[in-house]
Amino acid sequence: MTDADFEAEVIGAELPVLVEFTADWCPPCRQMGPVLKALAFEEGDRLKVVQLDVDSNPETTNAYKVLSMPTFMVFRDGEPVKSMVGARAKRRLLEELADVL
To answer: Does the entry annotate any disulfide bonds, and if so which pairs (predicted)?
Structure first.
């Protein structure tokens, strides 16, 4: 995902959207790749999962004041409703998402 399609893909989405603000140089971000793929597969009917590279997309990164990677933000109805920083296991991530799904 990019700054250019953030509005359509996240703000305009019907489902809640989990955005991972990530970077190629971030080892914890790379660790989250398989976790997010599994989450997208298992929860795809109630949650959209996308990644945004902070280095390639500074406009969105700055707009939401993202300073650490990985940062996870959940958007519902175009608004950020939850923010979490740091890598975590899938089980913990699901527990933290329970109140927004």
So the answer is: 26-29
